[in-house]
Design goal:
Layout lengths: L3 H10 L2 H4 L1 H18 L8 H12 L4 H13 L7 E8 L5 E8 L2 H13 L4 E2 L9 E10 L5 H11 L3 E5 L2 E7 L3 H12 L4 E8 L3 E2 L2 H15 L4 E6 L1 E2 L2 H8 L1
Parallel strand pairs: 8-10
Antiparallel strand pairs: 1-2, 1-3, 2-9, 4-6, 4-7, 5-6
Helix pairs in contact: 1-10, 3-4, 3-5, 6-9, 7-8
Length: about 250
């Protein structure tokens, strides 16, 4: 099993998502505010805002909280002016890691990210030091109940998607970055609103990890995601089901 979603799987098994509900909301509010600031406050005309609203709904954010975040962004309040920053480096076992952040203090965020890497056997690199090992692609995720795997595959193929992965948890459709808007729109018409729809970093190749290095890597990712400034962490690790079970135990 490879990539970011498997880390989420482990955290879910440990019950960490409930414990971090407040932090999840903080990250979502920042994204809503930034999305509203970067374009129109109308989700129909602002794909990034529409994706942020979808994520907030999935997290059961209240309508009032959601609307307040959008209004703050649309109002251009300087206090809510977050800058998008990307950090790259290597974690334990030579795993490539990309960290996306929204921050109002670059020095603070850089210090936190650097410390997370250095204290857990990693090394922070320069911009584009590992990005070449990933593809920037669109990802649209639907609940498993929307349709069968075959139906989603056919719908995604017709929409111009590149790949579909289906399991008991849902259907993940990926497409080229330039085709993202068109593919998402076509799939929404056929299957309804997705659980999430966003641009992600997809590893071109993966690096196997196990034992102590796997444990340290996941600890590093957890520290990174614990930062209010960090929005998403992507990593190109590959881990076996047995190792996954040990870490989740």
């Amino acid at each position: 099993m490879a990539g970011h979603s498997q880390f989420k799987n482990i955290m879910h098994r440990k019950g960490a998502q409930d414990a971090k509900r407040a932090k999840i909301f903080t990250k979502l509010i920042r994204e809503l505010t930034t999305a509203a600031r970067s374009g129109q406050p109308d989700p129909a005309a602002n794909p990034r805002l529409r994706a942020a609203i979808q994520a907030a709904r999935v997290a059961n954010m209240s309508k009032d909280t959601l609307e307040r975040a959008i209004k703050r962004g649309a109002g251009g309040d300087a206090a809510d002016n977050y800058e998008e920053v990307r950090y790259e480096g290597y974690g334990p076992g030579g795993v490539a890691v990309i960290v996306e952040a929204l921050t109002d203090n670059r020095n603070r965020t850089a210090g936190e990210v650097r410390a997370a890497f250095s204290k857990n056997g990693g090394a922070l690199g320069e911009t584009n030091s590992v990005a070449f090992m990933f593809d920037r692609v669109g990802e649209i995720v639907f609940p498993a109940a929307v349709a069968t795997a075959e139906a989603v595959f056919e719908g995604a193929l017709d929409a111009g998607a590149e790949d579909v992965q289906s399991d008991d948890e849902g259907h993940s459709v990926t497409c080229a970055q330039d085709d993202f808007a068109a593919v998402r729109e076509a799939l929404e018409k056929k299957f309804g609103e997705p659980k999430s729809a966003k641009l992600v970093w997809k590893p071109k190749t993966t690096t196997p990890v196990e034992g102590e290095k796997a444990e340290t890597l996941f600890r590093m990712i957890e520290v990174l995601e614990d930062s209010d400034d960090v929005q998403t962490v992507y990593a190109n690790f590959d881990i076996s089901e047995d190792e996954l079970s040990k870490l989740a135990g």
